[in-house]
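## retry 2 of 3
previous attempt timed out at serialization; input unchanged, resubmitting
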Amino acid sequence: MKQWYQELFANYADKYEDESFTQGTLGEVDFIEKEINHDKNCKILDVGCGTGRHAIELTKRGYWVTGVDLSEDMLEKAQKNASNAGLEIDFRQADARNLPFEEEFDLVILLCEGGFPLMETDEMNFQILESAARSLNKKGKLIFTTLNGLFPLFHSVKDFINSNSTSQTNRKNTFDLMTLRDIYQMEIEGDDGTKMNLNCNERYYIPSEITWLLKSLGFDEIGIYGCEIGAFTRDDPLTTENYEMLVIAEY
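## retry succeeded, writing output
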């Protein structure tokens, strides 16, 4: 049986690009460039690359990028976008929990919930971080964004979602304080006009959990910051007002 994210991204590549959370590409890539000191020799792996927005912008700026995603539909759109931009990019279908790389990259990015933390179990989410870490060389860096557990512990997820989404209406309070998971139903229209009813399951993480997971994978330096679309920075401390957190891990 397909999971909700597989159902969604098999029929949502076009509409995905119109979502508000995909509009910050230029600022996010500016930040990535700064983090790698504008080193054009840096080999970058974009996990959960979707329709290729970060991979394409990085390639335009002269970087060598490999993009992986679970969805054939999203990768097809990514290839089309790259071709339209006159670029050749190595896009591959792969499961983020079992990436086929071993110490090959200087930087791994998982942005906009690129797999993590959408998995249905905590073990599966950890496998994504483990696989990303395995893909990095011993001087590599991991940059990812994920859902901030401090937000729903302080606020109502229901009110936030209902005020910021056109695809979901009248969301009930579905956040489980015991598991830090939001399990809910979403009705959304796919690219082909089909109505999809999805049983969604997203895991929120608190900073101490993220730190522990990354420490267990051998990362020494871990920075966790507030995350704003298109405006990633180390200058914003994480607060209860941030729906997402920005995580930077180094050996």
